[in-house]
Amino acid sequence: MMKKSTKFSPEVRERAVRMVFESRGDHGSQWAAIESIAPKIGCSAQTLCNWVRQYERNTGQRDGTTTAEADRIKQLERENRELKKANEILRLASAFFAQAELDRRFKS
């Protein structure tokens, strides 16, 4: 059975996280607040918990990689892959032309 994937807008995510922080005092724990709010948003408690944890990382309340850092890492990894491909193409082209130069010298 395939998992249903629902994409939530950034505004919905922000509102849900804000609701968790605002209702913390009404519940015994943060997890209780998350379990209370998640059904109202239409997501699982674990999904909302992930959003809260990422918000805490982004605001410096929790150690870990921020969203901006993760995006930058992805960009650098993509750039690194492209550069490796370009280097491989240049290496092969260099070998090809070196061999062609050798063949030309032997034919002369």
TrEMBL record:
Entry keyword Manganese: no
Domain of life of the source: Bacteria
Keyword Coiled coil listed: yes
MF terms (GO), sorted A to Z: DNA binding; transposase activity
Sorted UniProt keywords: Coiled coil
Coiled coil: 66-93
GO process annotations (BP): DNA transposition
The name this protein goes by in its record: Transposase
Biological source species: Azonexus hydrophilus
Species lineage: Bacteria, Pseudomonadati, Pseudomonadota, Betaproteobacteria, Rhodocyclales
